[in-house]
Amino acid sequence: MEGKKTILRQSVGMLLAFTILLGGVYTLAMTGLTQMLFPRQANGSLIYAGDGSRICGSEYLAQPFEAKNHLWGRVMNVSGDALRDKDGSPLLYGGPSNLSPAGEDFGKMMAENVAKIRAAHPEMKDAPIPVDLVTSSGSGLDPEISLAAAEYQVPRLARETGRSQAEVREIIGKCTSGRLLGIFGEPRVNVLKVNLMLDEQLSK
């Protein structure tokens, strides 16, 4: 009986020790370390507008843009039935469509997306549409598009903002990230940053 009590005390002691060590000490240490080494990333990689006092988004979270004087990002599903409960209340900010590429609904959605892009870009009627302008990403929240997708929209942005195409391309260039380590992936354009610069609101 005494042996069982000893084992129980040891087990409870180990449980408390590891709870304090892993649930408290480790968590506080990692939080403090990330705040010291990567404070911007640890706090959400926030993007500020105006004088730097107004938070307008994160580098890693897409926002839906549909105004003609703004750069458009990937297709976002921010109001689909899958994102709402039975009463219609939002469950998630956004997410993937979960439509099968073999289904009729997917084909209909793609046709609508292509028609929307074509109608907004008459100057590009003979150019192929970059696929990321008519499809959503795996997460449905990708904040970046390819350089090709951004370039496709340059004529519309120049027309709607009154800027020259060269000025629009310069803004896009400032908001473009290169390949990871110079070799992995493709250059990417942050949609929110471009639009803030078009509106002249990106915080310096």
UniProtKB/TrEMBL annotation:
This protein's GO CC annotations: plasma membrane
Keywords annotated in UniProt: ATP-binding, Cell membrane, Ion transport, Membrane, Nucleotide-binding, Potassium, Potassium transport, Transmembrane, Transmembrane helix, Transport
A Pfam family this chain is assigned to: KdpC
Topological category with respect to the lipid bilayer: Single-pass membrane protein
Compartments reported by the entry: Cell membrane
InterPro entries: KdpC
One Gene Ontology molecular-function label: P-type potassium transmembrane transporter activity
Entry's transmembrane regions: 12-38
Protein family according to the UniProt entry: Belongs to the KdpC family.
Assembly description: The system is composed of three essential subunits: KdpA, KdpB and KdpC.
Protein role: Part of the high-affinity ATP-driven potassium transport (or Kdp) system, which catalyzes the hydrolysis of ATP coupled with the electrogenic transport of potassium into the cytoplasm. This subunit acts as a catalytic chaperone that increases the ATP-binding affinity of the ATP-hydrolyzing subunit KdpB by the formation of a transient KdpB/KdpC/ATP ternary complex.
Entry protein name: Potassium-transporting ATPase KdpC subunit
Species: Anaerovibrio slackiae
Protein encoded by which gene: kdpC
